[in-house]
Amino acid sequence: MTSEPVLAVSSLVKRFGDVTAVDGVGFELMPGASLGIVGESGSGKTTTARILAGLDAPTSGTVLLDGEPVTGRSRRARLRRARLLQMIFQDPYGSFDPRQSIAASIAEPMRLHLPGTAADRRARVAELLDQVGLSERAGASLPRDLSGGQRQRAAIARALGIRPRVLVLDEAVAALDVSIQAQILTLLDGLRRDTGIAYVFVSHDLAVVRHITDTAVVMRHGRIVERGDTERILREPRHPYTRLLLDSIPVPGWDLDRVARDRRALDPSS
Ligand SMILES: Nc1ncnc2c1ncn2[C@@H]1O[C@H](COP(=O)(O)OP(=O)(O)OP(=O)(O)O)[C@@H](O)[C@H]1O
């Protein structure tokens, strides 16, 4: 059986006035796969992610979710997109209603998208809390009473509730301590194995991308400059920009002067 990509992006362009934030980006994501989008600040990663989630409209290009375009702005189109694709942000604090319990927030997308009674939703919320490693007590708490790591677990539970096919994670662990990062990445790995969900994982952190993705694209100035298996890209980068990104990771014996020289050679205006 050959399966079709769950997400297919082609010739995506986004301009903000004179700035071309995304410039001809294309990639495919198979069901259950995990794709990294890496690059420095300003390379166009977040804009790409926002277009996938329908938060920005592309200037041109197509995004197909399960074979159908998702650029429509009608209520029906938005509901369909949200049903198939959910997004997780760096700090989900702002996306939780501060007056509502975590459990009530997790139930909200189910209320919008799925049939079922309040009792069905309560049962599913209990299952989700367990799946992401949160206690019943955490479920009864308000967002402000949880740690950053707990809130990110809650955001994952809320996104998974309606069983989407794709999760887009934009710097989802960037604000967390390294040990908490590792816990969340391990949780995400397990959830992918158990549910067959696919990830688009946007990150500037190559160590994180190595852990969580199978393939990756490297973006620079809105374009994809390199793509392939994540391990290969990190082991044998082919594009000078990817090499520069790798050389920019601080390690013992790190040569800051060399990194600065390489950067000037690649980008004389920097
Ligand atoms: N709403 C906007 N209006 C104008 N310019 C924008 C807007 N959003 C992004 N840009 C510009 O588009 C380019 C790409 O930004 P984007 O946020 O997608 O990059 P990024 O790789 O995600 O970086 P970061 O990690 O800093 O968010 C940048 O030059 C940015 O200034």
What are the SSEs and their pairings?
Blueprint: E1 7-16, E2 19-29, E3 34-38, H1 45-52, E4 60-65, E5 68-69, H2 75-84, E6 85-88, H3 102-113, H4 118-131, H5 136-140, H6 148-160, E7 166-170, H7 178-195, E8 198-203, H8 206-212, E9 215-220, E10 223-229, H9 230-235, H10 240-247, H11 256-266
Adenosine-5'-triphosphate (ATP) binds at residues 16, 19, 21, 39, 41-47, 204.
Structural commentary:
- The chain is an alpha/beta fold.
- 38% of the residues are buried.
- It has helices spanning 45-52, 75-84, 102-113, 118-131, 136-140, 148-160, 178-195, 206-212, 230-235, 240-247, 256-266, and strands at 7-16, 19-29, 34-38, 60-65, 68-69, 85-88, 166-170, 198-203, 215-220, 223-229.
- The model has no long low-confidence stretch (mean pLDDT 90).
- It has 2 domains: 7-238, P-loop containing nucleotide triphosphate hydrolases (Rossmann fold, 3-Layer(aba) Sandwich); 239-270, no CATH class.
- Strand 9 and strand 10 form a beta hairpin.
- The protein is built from 11 helices and 10 strands.
- It binds adenosine-5'-triphosphate.
- Adenosine-5'-triphosphate binds at residues 16, 19, 21, 39, 41-47, 204.
Give the overall shape. globular
Distinct small-molecule ligands in the complex: adenosine-5'-triphosphate
Work out the radius of gyration: 19 Å
CATH top level of the largest domain? Alpha Beta
Q: Please give the number of β-strands.
A: 10
Domain ABC transporter: 7-246
Protein name: ABC transporter ATP-binding protein
Keywords: ATP-binding, Nucleotide-binding, Transport
Organism: Actinomadura montaniterrae
